[in-house]
Amino acid sequence: MRRLSGGQRQRLALALAVVGRPRVLFLDEPSAGLDPQARLSVWALVESVRDDGVAVLLTTHLMDEAERLADQVVVVDAGRVVASGSPADLTGSGPAETVRFRATPRLDLTGLRDALPPDVEVGEPAPVSTSCTAPSTRGCCRP
Question: Which InterPro entries does the UniProt record give (predicted)?
Fold first, then answer.
């Protein structure tokens, strides 16, 4: 094994992980250090294993990898869950999210509008409430 390159070691580790046909497969950055062609091969193997009914828990820094391979994604930052959902939910291709909260009547919303991304709509549907509608990926309107 000492004579193998980093990519070859990574592929060998993946082969050893699946050779026993596990029911649950834990993979930590399975395509790290691989060239693009090898990465696609790893993804195809993970998809095949998943399609065979194996539960795959995968860690990755590659969002395209998570989007292609995952049914559910949990984003962790500094040890805390900051977002979770399907890849479609987290990439904004899912439904928009509406957050409503009560505020004092005629609250100045200038600071709120300035702090939020431009595609976030802030309105005053009722005299005592304010709503913020944004794609669920933003996380900006969460209480």
Answer: ABC_transporter-like_ATP-bd (IPR003439), ABC_transporter_ATP-binding (IPR050763), P-loop_NTPase (IPR027417)
